[in-house]
């Protein structure tokens, strides 16, 4: 019997540990998102394609080597490939060959194509990093939202515990006839309202946890949770940096600008490739071929030593391949003269793409300047909101303590006392929201200044 009790206890403990939630840090969430986010995985596939394009460009500098072979059978009046004469009979022949070609000059298009492939691979890498930055910001924002909602929930629970104490004390005073029953009902209504606030705050925490889990591609919402670590107000030295300096730094570190710059360079290389089509193309070629025919025979001849006639006979397969082989090699030049204006039109189209990419770069710079300016203003505004909320909490807390003292000696009714407590609750909730809003906006401004998100 004792053994069964111990076994059940051990299984219960093991089961409880198995059901424990994994608590994620912000760094773990960011790392997991980078490894499992579908958008990032698609970007990594684009990088693999860019590497293949680079390999194709390198392959243009290597000679091409190809082997061919054909087998055919002819009946009736046709040309015998071994004698190149017309015959009227059935024969079978095989013609294998090996050929090779190498481009010697093509207007430097192969060099431009290789440089273009390198620039495109770099552009795709910048795009991948830009996507990762967006994911990191989204994860950090969702993570801080959970902490904000959880801290708000803790405040509501603390206020509810304080209300429960007031409720017990008021109940005793009502039973002793010191206070009217209406005061007790007012405190009970306040407690009920706080219970509603707690339920709503718990729902907010759950919803924010689900939002972060979905962002990480995690479906087990029940066992997903984050480390309950409160964030202090970070170093705000970034606010001492002039706005124009933050913007100038952002133009050198933001992947969005790097992507636009690389696209301009890629478009310029495409233009060079298009211009290269105006030049002649010089290539070298080499070909080795041989043949076999079942109709091939040695011709008869007279032996000069003996005067005896030696009749002809069939030639073996390997002997024919050796006797009937040939080699051809040389150079070939292709001079473009008139191709339906395709070369000139292609050059014009690529010039337009170059100008379009430059305009996009200017537009991205203007957008970045707008984003940095907005982030700078938002940080200052959110800091002022946080300071104001902090002062409001101090004032509401002092007012609440004063109201509590007056209520305890019967100089304030329960309604006014409940109102003082409700105003304190709202002020503390607002303080938490402004605190995390300020933290995120400050970190976002630091991100524009080049401080990595991993240092959050």
Automatic annotation (TrEMBL):
Main localization (coarse): membrane
UniProt xrefs under Gene3D superfamilies: Outer membrane efflux proteins (OEP)
Annotated compartments: Cell outer membrane
GO molecular function, one term: porin activity
GO CC, one annotated term: efflux pump complex
Record key words, sorted: Cell outer membrane, Membrane, Signal, Transmembrane, Transmembrane beta strand, Transport
SUPFAM superfamilies cross-referenced by the UniProt entry: Outer membrane efflux proteins (OEP) (SSF56954)
Cleavable signal peptide: 1-18
Family matches, as InterPro entries: OMP_efflux (IPR003423), TolC-like (IPR051906)
Transport recorded as keyword: yes
Family classification: Belongs to the outer membrane factor (OMF) (TC 1.B.17) family.
Name listed for the protein in its UniProt record: Outer membrane efflux protein
Organism: Galbibacter marinus
Lineage start: Bacteria, Pseudomonadati, Bacteroidota, Flavobacteriia, Flavobacteriales
């Amino acid at each position: 019997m004792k053994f069964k009790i111990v076994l059940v206890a051990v299984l219960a403990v093991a089961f409880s540990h198995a059901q424990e939630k994994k608590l994620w840090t912000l760094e773990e969430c960011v790392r997991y998102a980078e490894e499992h986010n579908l958008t990032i995985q698609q970007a990594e596939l684009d990088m693999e394609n860019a590497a293949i394009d680079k390999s194709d460009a390198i392959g243009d500098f290597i000679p091409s080597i190809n082997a061919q072979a054909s087998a055919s059978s002819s009946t009736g009046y046709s040309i015998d490939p071994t004698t190149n004469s017309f015959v009227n009979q059935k024969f079978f022949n095989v013609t294998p060959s090996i050929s090779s070609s190498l481009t010697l000059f093509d207007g430097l298009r192969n060099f431009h194509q290789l440089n273009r492939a390198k620039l495109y691979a770099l552009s795709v890498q910048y795009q991948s990093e830009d996507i990762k930055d967006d994911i990191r910001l989204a994860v950090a924002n969702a993570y801080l939202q959970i902490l904000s909602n959880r801290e708000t929930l803790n405040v509501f629970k603390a206020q509810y515990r304080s209300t429960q104490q007031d409720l017990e004390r008021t109940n005793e005073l009502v039973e002793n006839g010191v206070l009217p029953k209406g005061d007790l009902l007012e405190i009970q209504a306040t407690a009920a309202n706080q219970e509603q606030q707690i339920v709503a705050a718990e729902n907010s925490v759950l919803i924010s946890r689900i939002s972060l889990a979905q962002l990480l591609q995690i479906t087990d919402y029940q066992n997903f949770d984050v480390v309950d670590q409160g964030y202090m107000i970070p170093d705000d030295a970034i606010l001492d940096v002039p706005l124009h300096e933050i913007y100038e730094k952002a133009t050198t570190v933001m992947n969005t600008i790097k992507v636009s710059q690389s696209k301009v360079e890629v478009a310029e290389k495409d233009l060079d490739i298009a211009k290269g089509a105006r030049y002649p193309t010089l290539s070298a070629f080499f070909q080795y071929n041989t043949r076999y025919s079942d109709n091939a025979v040695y011709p008869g001849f007279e032996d000069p030593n003996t005067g005896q006639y030696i009749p002809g006979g069939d030639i073996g397969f390997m002997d024919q391949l050796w006797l009937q082989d040939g080699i051809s090699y040389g150079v070939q030049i292709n001079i473009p003269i008139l191709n339906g204006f395709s070369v000139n039109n292609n050059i014009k189209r690529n010039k337009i793409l170059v100008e379009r990419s430059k305009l996009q770069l200017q537009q991205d710079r203007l957008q970045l300047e707008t984003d940095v300016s907005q982030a700078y203003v938002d940080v200052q505004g959110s800091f002022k909101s946080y300071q104001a909320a902090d002062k409001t909490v101090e004032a509401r807390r002092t007012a609440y303590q004063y109201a509590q003292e007056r209520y305890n000696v019967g100089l304030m009714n329960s309604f006014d006392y409940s109102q003082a407590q409700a105003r304190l609750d709202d002020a503390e909730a607002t303080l938490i929201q402004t605190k995390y809003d300020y933290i995120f906006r400050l970190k976002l401004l630091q991100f524009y200044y080049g401080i990595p998100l991993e240092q959050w």
